[in-house]
Amino acid sequence: MENKMTKVSLVYISLSGNTESFVRRLTDYLLEQHPSLEVEKIHIKDLVKERQPFFEMDNPFIAFLPTYLEGGNGVDNGDVEILTTDVGDFIAYGQNASKCLGVIGSGNRNFNNQYCLTAKQYSERFGFPVLADFEMRGMLGDIKKVAGIIEELYHIEKNENQ
């Protein structure tokens, strides 16, 4: 049992709806398993759209990053990130990079070397790990895997009925 309220922070951007769907289903799953958990979801697209200034996170967080790249094959060309640069700006803001526990990448496996390339680039740029990846909207197995990673990183005890 968790004695104190644990706050899990999820920072993401979703343009096609896939990442948002995954974060929503992950949140539902975590709250079902841990009713006393607090889950903070920060959609970077909303901050940018509403022209809200970036802010320093007060809690460790996990970033969810879909892959949108400019054409090419992701090896010798076409590895220029597009559309998700606001997430990089948010992570680079203040001390946020030091509070990021890692990144979870998503994409389409059909894109071969470009699959989750943006997450790998952020990992290299900021020095935090790629914790997991999922394709498109992710499956229940992906949600359970990521929930397990979150439980470990935030030191959340697993329920006996899991």
TrEMBL record:
<feature type="domain" description="Flavodoxin-like">
    <location>
        <begin position="8"/>
        <end position="162"/>
    </location>
</feature>
<feature type="binding site">
    <location>
        <position position="15"/>
    </location>
    <ligand>
        <name>FMN</name>
    </ligand>
</feature>
<keyword id="KW-0285">Flavoprotein</keyword>
<feature type="binding site">
    <location>
        <position position="14"/>
    </location>
    <ligand>
        <name>FMN</name>
    </ligand>
</feature>
<feature type="binding site">
    <location>
        <position position="68"/>
    </location>
    <ligand>
        <name>FMN</name>
    </ligand>
</feature>
<keyword id="KW-0288">FMN</keyword>
<feature type="binding site">
    <location>
        <position position="18"/>
    </location>
    <ligand>
        <name>FMN</name>
    </ligand>
</feature>
<dbReference type="GO" id="GO:0016651">
    <property type="term" value="F:oxidoreductase activity, acting on NAD(P)H"/>
</dbReference>
<dbReference type="InterPro" id="IPR008254">
    <property type="entry name" value="Flavodoxin/NO_synth"/>
</dbReference>
<keyword id="KW-0547">Nucleotide-binding</keyword>
<dbReference type="InterPro" id="IPR004465">
    <property type="entry name" value="RNR_NrdI"/>
</dbReference>
<feature type="binding site">
    <location>
        <position position="108"/>
    </location>
    <ligand>
        <name>FMN</name>
    </ligand>
</feature>
<protein>
    <recommendedName>
        <fullName>Putative NrdI-like protein</fullName>
    </recommendedName>
</protein>
<feature type="binding site">
    <location>
        <position position="114"/>
    </location>
    <ligand>
        <name>FMN</name>
    </ligand>
</feature>
<dbReference type="GO" id="GO:0010181">
    <property type="term" value="F:FMN binding"/>
</dbReference>
<dbReference type="InterPro" id="IPR029039">
    <property type="entry name" value="Flavoprotein-like_sf"/>
</dbReference>
<feature type="binding site">
    <location>
        <position position="67"/>
    </location>
    <ligand>
        <name>FMN</name>
    </ligand>
</feature>
<feature type="binding site">
    <location>
        <position position="16"/>
    </location>
    <ligand>
        <name>FMN</name>
    </ligand>
</feature>
<dbReference type="Pfam" id="PF07972">
    <property type="entry name" value="Flavodoxin_NdrI"/>
</dbReference>
<feature type="binding site">
    <location>
        <position position="19"/>
    </location>
    <ligand>
        <name>FMN</name>
    </ligand>
</feature>
<feature type="binding site">
    <location>
        <position position="116"/>
    </location>
    <ligand>
        <name>FMN</name>
    </ligand>
</feature>
